[in-house]
């Protein structure tokens, strides 16, 4: 199937826009590669320090004839998704020896749990943790001892931060190693109902805690289709996982076999062999277009609209919101996974998962097949699925028909003809809305504005019974330069209750919403942000706003709007406590949301 004209056109304009920065990037990584395996240039003293604790591997390391794989790990047991990584290093070292290689933990990176920090001051560090992760991984790789790298990370900011580091060390092959989703517990929609009942006082904290614990119940990624699982999808669409690795549960024989295979593959694609596959050459404009196509086809997290531009910039590629909008218009929504449906990622995987979806999108000409991946040339490898045959890992052709059309549909008969995200632009700035979970009758909301400076103010007004009419809730001064751009996911139960009471309600904010949000129409990531004098800072209570996901606009219907002076907020409360004082330099220098809200790229 020839490439769809929109896919080709968007790829061409990204390539043209990025020609200078991408060319300079490729020159840098090729120069680094030409210097040869890094360890050859370390002094004997340098190497002795690096190998002192490596026991039986010392001789192989000193001889420098075998590949040495650096492990960058985001292990902690605060995140259920990352807890399985605890024993991965020892397993990786053993697998490396079997593959004729060595492996070392190069370093660890922080990995915060957004589920723990939702609605808390710590959430104001969340976005910036992505850049800290990139910096920490950069420190790990700066030892210059590694012929390839294995990146162990899954959740919200961890994968984007690791990609930024892998791109920066783009001459080094990189394989991303997932740990898989937890098994299904209390259905996500049942958990959501309990949250709404708690918000209205119908149930107490004991009932809420029981529901939450039954949903988040064991090791593995949370099972809804939020940012963590969107990241895992992305790594397959972009060719950085082994095919079919994303959604295999932790602790299973297949999961362990895939991890061992990732080690063997990392050893095989170094510059010491004949299949050198540097990460920077995988991460080209075609890979990023494929990733955005996957985001649209699956109805993935809005957080990736923020992260993908930052990830791309690390590889010299410049993405724009217009690219997301054009691809969303061309790509059908093929999946319904909570919050866009009732199924979780285990149900999605059982229905045919990524192998079915990638095969369908390739057949429809909606993906670049001619890409490099860690598995070899061509994305068609990712239309295969892994199996164990007599204990041996093998790949077979993936399903060509959906096994549950309530969860997963073919490209020719999708849930809706366009993707799950919509760009919004107007006199309030530029933003994005996740429309895949919003009922069509709620795609256009026109109502008076209620202006707030924090999510706590919204919840307090709700408890006072102030929301009695249609409204557009504006929560401003939530951008990177104001308070680190926290997710406002804790507003979801409150706004959902108002919507369920029959009110027309929308959210407009320069902050973020969780990848698990979506029922309420929300114009998010609005840029320029209020803290730098953006249009949201000129709004007043009662202004009539129109949030239109059909036309793709966010407008203040106020005659004198452009002439108003922006208000300035007192942001001093965001400067201290729970580590926020350490991040002043990030708040001062962060870029705008539309380019990723980043400091380091």
UniProtKB/TrEMBL annotation:
Q: Which Pfam families match?
A: ILV_EDD_C, ILVD_EDD_N
Its annotated pathway? Answer: Carbohydrate metabolism; Entner-Doudoroff pathway
What PROSITE patterns does the entry give? ILVD_EDD_1, ILVD_EDD_2
Q: Which Gene3D superfamilies match?
A: IlvD/EDD C-terminal domain-like (3.50.30.80)
Q: Which residues bind [4Fe-4S] cluster?
A: 155, 222
Annotated Dihydroxy-acid/6-phosphogluconate dehydratase C-terminal domain ranges read 406-596
Q: How is the cofactor bound?
A: Binds 1 [4Fe-4S] cluster.
Name its co-factor(s): [4Fe-4S] cluster
Q: Which GO terms describe its molecular function?
A: phosphogluconate dehydratase activity
Which reaction(s) are listed as its catalytic activity? Answer: 6-phospho-D-gluconate = 2-dehydro-3-deoxy-6-phospho-D-gluconate + H2O
Q: Where is the Dihydroxy-acid/6-phosphogluconate dehydratase N-terminal domain?
A: 66-379
* Enzyme Commission number, as recorded: 4.2.1.12
Swiss-Prot/TrEMBL keywords: 4Fe-4S, Carbohydrate metabolism, Gluconate utilization, Iron, Iron-sulfur, Lyase, Metal-binding
Q: Which InterPro entries match?
A: 6-phosphgluc_deHydtase (IPR004786), Dihydro-acid_dehy_C (IPR042096), DiOHA_6PGluconate_deHydtase_CS (IPR020558), ILV_EDD_C (IPR056740), ILV_EDD_N (IPR000581), IlvD/EDD_N (IPR037237)
Q: Which family does it belong to?
A: Belongs to the IlvD/Edd family.
Q: What's this chain's function?
A: Catalyzes the dehydration of 6-phospho-D-gluconate to 2-dehydro-3-deoxy-6-phospho-D-gluconate.
Q: What is this protein called?
A: Phosphogluconate dehydratase
Task: Recall the taxonomic lineage recorded for the source organism.
Answer: Bacteria, Pseudomonadati, Pseudomonadota, Alphaproteobacteria, Rhodobacterales
């Amino acid at each position: 199937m020839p490439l769809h004209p929109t896919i080709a056109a968007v790829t061409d304009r990204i390539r043209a826009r990025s020609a200078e920065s991408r060319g300079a990037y490729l020159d840098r990584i090729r120069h680094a590669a030409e210097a040869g395996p890094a360890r050859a240039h370390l002094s004997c003293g340098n190497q002795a320090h690096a190998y002192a604790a490596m026991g039986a591997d010392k001789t192989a390391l000193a001889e420098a004839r075998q590949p040495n794989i650096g492990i960058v790990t985001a292990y902690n047991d605060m995140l259920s998704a990352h807890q399985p990584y605890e024993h991965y290093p020892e397993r990786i070292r053993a697998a490396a020896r079997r593959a004729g290689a060595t492996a070392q933990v190069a370093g660890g990176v922080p990995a915060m749990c957004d589920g723990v920090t939702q609605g808390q001051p710590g959430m104001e560090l969340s976005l910036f943790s992505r850049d800290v992760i990139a910096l920490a991984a950069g420190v790990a790789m700066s030892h210059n001892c590694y012929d390839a790298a294995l990146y162990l990370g899954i959740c919200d900011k961890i994968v984007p931060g690791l990609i930024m580091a892998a791109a920066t060390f783009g001459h080094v092959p990189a394989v991303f190693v997932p740990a898989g989703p937890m098994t299904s517990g209390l259905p996500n929609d049942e958990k959501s109902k309990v949250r709404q009942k708690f918000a209205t006082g119908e149930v107490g904290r004991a009932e809420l805690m029981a529901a939450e614990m039954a949903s988040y119940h064991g090791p593995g990624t949370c099972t809804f289709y939020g940012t963590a699982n969107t990241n895992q999808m992305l790594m397959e669409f972009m060719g950085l996982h082994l095919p079919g690795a994303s959604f295999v549960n932790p602790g299973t024989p297949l999961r362990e076999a895939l991890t061992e295979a990732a080690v063997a593959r990392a050893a095989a694609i170094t510059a010491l062999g004949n299949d050198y596959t540097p990460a920077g050459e995988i991460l080209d404009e075609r890979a990023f277009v494929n990733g955005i196509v996957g985001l649209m086809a699956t109805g993935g997290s809005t957080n990736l609209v923020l992260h993908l531009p930052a990830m791309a910039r690390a590889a010299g590629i410049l993405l724009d919101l217009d690219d997301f909008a054009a691809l969303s218009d061309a790509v059908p929504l093929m999946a319904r996974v909570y919050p866009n449906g009732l199924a979780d990622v285990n149900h999605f995987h059982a229905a045919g998962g990524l192998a079915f979806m990638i095969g369908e999108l390739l057949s429809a000409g909606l993906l670049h097949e001619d890409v490099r991946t860690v598995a070899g040339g061509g994305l068609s490898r990712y239309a295969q699925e892994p199996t164990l045959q007599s204990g041996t890992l093998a790949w077979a052709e993936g399903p060509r028909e959906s096994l549950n059309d309530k969860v997963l549909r073919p490209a020719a008969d999708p849930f809706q003809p366009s993707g799950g995200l919509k760009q919004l632009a107007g006199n309030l700035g530029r933003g994005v809305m996740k429309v895949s979970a919003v009922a069509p009758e709620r795609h256009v909301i026109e109502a008076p504005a209620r202006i707030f400076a924090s999510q706590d103010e919204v919840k307090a007004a709700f408890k006072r019974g102030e929301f009695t009419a249609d409204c557009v809730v504006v929560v401003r001064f939530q951008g990177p330069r104001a308070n680190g751009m926290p997710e406002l996911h804790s507003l979801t139960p409150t706004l959902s209750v108002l919507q369920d009471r029959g009110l027309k309600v929308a959210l407009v904010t320069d902050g973020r919403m969780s990848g698990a949000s979506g029922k309420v129409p929300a114009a998010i990531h609005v840029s320029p942000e209020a803290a730098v004098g953006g249009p949201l800072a000129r709004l007043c209570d009662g202004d009539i706003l129109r949030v239109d996901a059909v036309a793709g606009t966010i407008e203040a219907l106020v005659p004198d709007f452009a002439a108003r002076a922006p208000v300035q907020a007192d942001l001093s409360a965001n400067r201290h406590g729970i580590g926020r004082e350490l991040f002043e330099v990030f708040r001062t220098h962060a870029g705008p949301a539309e380019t990723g809200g980043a400091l380091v790229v």
